[in-house]
Amino acid sequence: MRINPLDRALELAEKAKGGVAPRPPVGAVVVLDGEIVGEGSTAPRPGRHAETVALDHAGGLAKGAALYCTLEPHSFQGATPPCTDAIIKAGISSVVSPLEDPNPRVSGNGFRQLKTAGIEVVRESTEEQGIRAELLIEGFAHHLKKRRPLVTLKIASSLDGRIATRTGESQWITGEASRVRVHEMRRQADAVITGIGTVLADDPRLTARDVNGVATGRPLLRVVVDSNGRMPSDAALLGEPGEVLWVVGDDVEVELENLADSVTVLKSSRTNGKIDLAVVIGELGTRGLHNVMIEAGGELAGAFVEGGFVDKVAAFIAPKIIGGRDAPGPIAGPEPGITSLADALTLERVTHTVIDGDILVEGYVRQIQT
After folding, report:
1. Is 176 a catalytic residue?
2. Which entry of 51, 72, 283, 295 is annotated as an active-site residue?
3. Spatial distance between the Cα atoms of 156 and 225, rounded to a whole number of angstroms
4. 324 — alpha (psi -120 to 50), left (phi > 0) or beta?
5. pLDDT tens, position by position, 41-60
6. pTM of the full structure
7. Quick one: which of 5, 45, 71 has its CA closest to 220?
8. Between the CA atoms of 321, 326, 327 and 329, what dihedral angle is there, to the nearest 10 degrees?
């Protein structure tokens, strides 16, 4: 069965997500006489955009063909020439694209340039395709608006809200299928944040691996929040490829001689003795990262929540009951907690997915109107 061209473009964009920031992930395919003759996805800077990769793949077959792309083609000279110029030069007859680029430097200009050149612009898509296209660029759009990444808090807990037993055993609360889903979420994240407590207790690699256990090279950045610089030189995550951002207090001196060259130290001011998380998020925003996931213990997760830095929650709930007053929960912190349910962090646009017995609840943090 032939794949829908826009669905194929979405697949290509989803594979690029997590590896191309500060660019948005985009997929494109060229279709002639009902057959896909060229395809491409966004490459990291200074590589090419999806549209030009697909056009080059199609070569002479692009003349008179249709171009399907997941986002409006860009129309200005940046790290690469305008994609609209390449589309017009290739002789494309029509462009099918569901979304206008939220970047104010584009924001409809790409579509207008194509129409002026006599190219038909089609904005039609199914509801599912539209949702997939919007999810692809939600971090990009968030960064354009807030100048910081979209931050997702990932939680894995039992039915009674425990993330480990009273002795600290946590592997594994959720099932294998849920863990595969988490690896895909890591692959599509620009960065994953954890705390020194998790590093010392679980010695995670924080890498994304495919179903065969092979590392995908994502996420591109792993962040360890470590107020007092206690990360050991033999931590498993240091043996994996990719940059590690080691965040320590500004009064801490760390030894780098025994660490990999890929380790970068970020010194941060403290708030109540702990790392100022605004410094961490600010650094990630300055780097142009769009999607960041937190995988941490209750203390650090609670600090991100209390600081107002969490935009989205992905909670995996396993059909298990752990029990025990000393078994930790996913959100903790030095503060005693709220006294009124009206002050609870509330999610909206909530979805529920059953994953081989586990339940994944995802939603966006409701913004308080001021």
Report:
1. no
2. 51
3. 20
4. left
5. 999 988 999 999 999 999 99
6. 0.92
7. 45
8. 110
